[in-house]
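S1.2 Input.
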Amino acid sequence: MAAQVTESDQVKQFKEFLGTYNKVTENCFMDCVKDFTSRDVRPEESSCSESCLQKYLKMTQRISMRFQEYHIQQNEALAAKAGLLGPR
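S1.3 Output.
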C-alpha cells in the first residue's frame, strides 16, 4: 500500500515552504534594497535580488545532493555490515 500524505502533512509542508520563502525574501530584500526614495525598483536592486535568489537555490540544491549522497553511503555501509552487499 502506497504511503498517503495526510491533509495535516500537506499543511505542515506548506507552512514550512512559506516560512522558507519569507526568510529568503526578507534576507534578499534587506541585502539588496537600499533606496526608498522612489517607488520604482532600481536595476541594481533587481539584479541583486535575482542573484540572491539564484545563490540560495543553488545552495539548497547542492545541500540536497550532498545529503542524498551521505544517506546512500550510510545505507551502503549498513548493508555491508549486515552482509547484504558483496565486496565492491
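S1.4 Remarks. Residues 56 and 62 are 10 Å apart (CA to CA).
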